[in-house]
Design goal:
The protein is mostly helical. It has two domains: 105 residues; 90 residues. It is built from twelve helices and no strands. Helix 3 runs antiparallel to helix 4, helix 3 runs parallel beside helix 6 and helix 9 packs parallel to helix 12. The chain is globular and about 50 Å long. Keywords: Signal. InterPro entries: ARM-like (IPR011989), ARM-type_fold (IPR016024).
Length: 224
């Protein structure tokens, strides 16, 4: 069923059309944490409703940036990889596509979303995020690419994604020491990236999972 907290959040979001009220609501870490819990604990109906709400929230640059800080991009991975209905996965991909426009908006002055943004596949969204300049945004992209690379059945397809390997190698060169501790929102479980590992370490581990050798970090992440 719907977690009580998430039900309250979804109700609050549905009853407000004030963009400032919505922005203030999602700025509270516990609020977004309830929505993320709903994507991992809820039924197909709940997950679809939650992802649809997140997609509606991601209607501005500010909200997309806030959702990224709260790990929403990373958590969409579990909806997409999980055994949920296709409509849930499609709604999650749309959320990821919207958040991934942060990579475009870092290079352009407008916050408008180009229709081409919705042509990106989920791995392409992660590649775009891995190319972001803000360290925490780049970390989200790398964390997703690492998680995808852990899935043996996806590795050949990932190697065919344009720019993926180059993006991971570029992260290694940036020496990005961002880790997940800076953006924790209260959802603590096995779905998070390995605690304490940096973007560089995750990028190295992803490259190793894909059968590519790169400078290895001192702390090695065990591959599943």
């Amino acid at each position: 069923g719907v977690p009580v907290g998430a039900a309250g959040v979804l109700a609050a979001l549905s009853f407000t059309s004030d963009v400032h009220a919505t922005a203030a609501l999602i700025a509270v870490p516990e609020v977004v944490a309830e929505l993320l819990k709903a994507t991992t604990l809820g039924t197909d109906s709940t997950v679809f409703q939650t992802c649809t709400a997140l997609g509606n929230i991601a209607d501005s640059y500010k909200n997309r940036a806030t959702l990224c800080v709260h790990r929403v991009f990373f958590y969409m991975t579990h909806v997409i990889l999980g055994g949920l209905a296709c409509e849930c996965k499609e709604a999650a991909v749309r959320v990821a596509q919207l958040i991934a426009t942060l990579a475009d908006e870092s290079r352009i002055s407008t916050g408008d979303v180009s229709p081409r943004a919705f042509e990106r596949t989920f791995p392409e969204c992660a590649v775009a995020m891995a190319g972001c300049k803000p360290a925490h945004q780049q970390y989200e992209g790398v964390a997703v690419l690492h998680l995808l690379s852990e899935q043996q059945g996806l590795r050949d397809k990932l190697l065919q994604v344009d720019g993926l390997v180059e993006a991971l190698r570029q992260v290694v060169l940036t020496e990005n020491n961002e880790n997940d501790s800076a953006s924790e929102v209260g959802v603590t479980d096995h779905r998070r990236p390995p605690a304490g590992f940096t973007a560089v370490e995750l990028a190295c581990a992803a490259l190793e999972n894909l059968g590519l050798s790169e400078r290895k970090p001192e702390s090695k992440i065990e591959s599943s």
